[in-house]
Amino acid sequence: MMTEASPGDAPTDAPVATTVATTADDTNALPFVAPCRRLGTWEPIGWLRLAWSDFKTAPRQSLTYGAVVVLLSWALAYIAIRFGGYFELLALVSGFILLAPLLAVGTYSISEQIERGRQPSLRRCLVVGRRAFGNLMVFALILMIVFLVWWRAASAVHIFFPVDMTSPDWTDYLQFLGIGSAVGSIFAVIVFAAAAFSLPMLVDREADSVTAVVSSINAVLRNKPAMVVWAALIVVAVSPGFALLLLGRERGAGFALVMALLGITLPLIGHATWHAYRATIDASAWPRNEHLDP
Q: Which 8-state DSSP code applies to residue 1?
């Protein structure tokens, strides 16, 4: 004889079990964007103070990354001068600044080690880079695409607004620099927003590149005054080198000084970026990367 299923039978219990499992999955799901706190306009100055403290605590490790920047810059300069010209050199150096955040990953690790009370170690920095290699390569690919598009835009500006180097006219220079700066600023803002906090988050937490980039852009948009100050400080850190590049381009002395300055200022900016991330992003929902074991 057929009977109706009682409440305790399996067919009735199955949907209940599924509902419980789904609820548990929803509870454990990670947010799409990491929360951020509101920043005071002048807080970035404090990040630089903390960065200088880290630099003094680990000068050898920081200057090692600065030396890597110098060597890569020399290689770029050789390629530009050998196969192009002065304006190609300017474009390559500017693009190198866009890609520099990837080189600063080691300085984030140094600051993290100091924060945790560890003795900074370059070996641990390499471990960080290896563990985050996949996400860093995704981010590097994004930056490379942006740089290539920017390079083509810079070439178009040079074609449509040429500067005669034999008989320079200041109006031509102003027009070229004005339009070129406006075009470059668009790409610089995109890269700045994407890289401001994403790379330190990838070093600190087990997060994917998309989440880190979206969290960075969200934090930048919610803290525009502080981010304007922070971007201005970064520009100030690299602008003296570009001024020397313009003054000493004939003998190459200016470029040598550029690289000497960037070998110090870029690691300093890297340390400050770590402190900016720690002060801004709440990434506690993601597991922390435990990569600091001896």
A: -
Burial of 110 (0-12, 13-18, 19+ CB in 10 A): buried
Q: Give pLDDT, residue 128.
A: 73
Residue 139: closest CA among 195, 200, 221, 217 = 195
246 or 2, which is more confident: 246
Q: What is the DSSP string of 199-252?
A: HHHHHHBS--HHHHHHHHHHHHHHTHHHHHHHHHHHHHHHHHHHHHHHHTTTTT
The rounded distance, in Å, linking the Cα atoms of 176 and 181 is 8
Q: Which amino acid is at 243?
A: A
CA–CA gap between residue 122 and residue 129 (Å, rounded)? 11
Radius of gyration of the chain (CA): 24
Full DSSP string of 8-30? TSHHHHHHHHHHHHHHHHHHHPP
pTM of the model: 0.73
- Encoded tokens for 132: 């985050």
Whether the CB-CB separation of 280 and 82 falls below 8 Å is answered with no
Q: Bridge partners of 75?
A: none
φ, ψ dihedrals at 187, nearest 5°: -70, -35
